């Protein structure tokens, strides 16, 4: 049994700000093969699926599919509002190396 990632209050607050839950949307965090380091994150607004792991807070949902779950164990899904841009970020302790683009990694 893999533990789901944690979602920060900032990430839930950002989803509330953009009205994701009101539109029946959740933040989907998935791990796909590809990218410069072997795996890459896909982060998008999407409707929850029946077999998703659903993380809820502030009336908002973050969903992770079963295949991506092992890659995201103990990870933290956060929202970063910096000079380089506001975006959802994933702090993942399982990652052995990542590349400069910040969306690709290897384990």
From TrEMBL:
SUPFAM superfamilies: HesB-like domain. Residues 6-102 form the Core domain. Pfam families: Fe-S_biosyn (PF01521). One of its GO terms (biological process) is iron-sulfur cluster assembly. Gene3D superfamilies: HesB-like domain (2.60.300.12). InterPro entries: ATAP, ATAP_core_dom, FeS_cluster_insertion_CS, HesB-like_dom_sf. It comes from the Bacteria. NCBIfam families: iron-sulfur cluster assembly accessory protein. This is Iron-sulfur cluster assembly accessory protein. It comes from Roseivivax lentus. The lineage of its organism: Bacteria, Pseudomonadati, Pseudomonadota, Alphaproteobacteria, Rhodobacterales.
């Amino acid at each position: 049994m893999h533990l789901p990632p944690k979602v920060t209050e900032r990430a839930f607050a950002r989803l509330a700000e953009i009205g994701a839950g009101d539109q029946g949307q959740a933040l989907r965090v998935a791990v796909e093969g590809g990218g410069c380091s072997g795996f890459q994150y896909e982060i998008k607004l999407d409707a929850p699926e029946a077999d998703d792991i659903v993380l809820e807070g502030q009336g908002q949902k973050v969903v992770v599919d079963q295949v991506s779950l092992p890659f995201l164990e103990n990870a933290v899904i956060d929202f970063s509002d910096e000079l380089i841009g506001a975006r959802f970020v994933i702090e993942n302790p399982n990652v052995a190396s990542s590349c400069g683009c910040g969306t690709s990694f290897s384990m």
